[in-house]
Amino acid sequence: MSLKVDQLNTMEITRHCVVALTWTLKDTLGEELDTLNDPVEFLVGGNDLLPVIEDALQGYRVGTTINLQMEPEQTFGDFNDQLVFLEARQLFPADLQEGMVLEGSALPPGCNPDAPRDVLYTVTDVYPEHVVLDGNHPLAGIAMRMRMQVRGVRAATEEESACGSCGATFFKL
Known about the structure:
The chain is mainly beta. It has two domains: about 5-75 and about 140-160, Chitinase A, domain 3, CATH 3.10.50.40; about 80-135, Thrombin, subunit H (Beta Barrel), CATH 2.40.10. It has three helices and eight strands; from the N terminus they run αββαββββββα. The chain has helices at about 5-10, 50-55, 160-165; strands spanning about 15-25, 30-45, 65-70, 85-90, 100-105, 120-125, 130-135, 145-155. The strands form two sheets. Strands 2-1-8-3 form a four-stranded antiparallel sheet. Strands 4-7-6-5 form a four-stranded antiparallel sheet, with no helix packed on it. The protein is elongated and about 60 Å long. Residues about 1-10 have low confidence and may be disordered.
């Protein structure tokens, strides 16, 4: 099925369509957390967007600007201090740097056995004797304000619907 350009511009956002978005994401103090200036496509009703964002988009069309307030429980949850671990520096490669992301399943032998292995850890600090691993999402515990612009809406392809994604990974760590 092919759609004419004017049909694309009037298509309403529903589940299992693709929406192209730009946005500015800020915390509640107004500090900018993320800006997406070039439109990126997301599958609505798949795995690309948080449910709170998908719900806010329903029924809108190209050209719409949506302002959305999101609480931690709607996004990445509250900060969990039980997911922060202090580990011996000697267990890790010499080139370990702050900001690196490590899979819990690949933590070196000797790390805390209580550290969940199904979590991604961000290296938040590297000291001569130890490193700090944080298994929280970097935006956990933060209430956010998002200003989104709908730049495009189209029907999802069979492939996109089958895999549940357009390939966007903005909301995954």
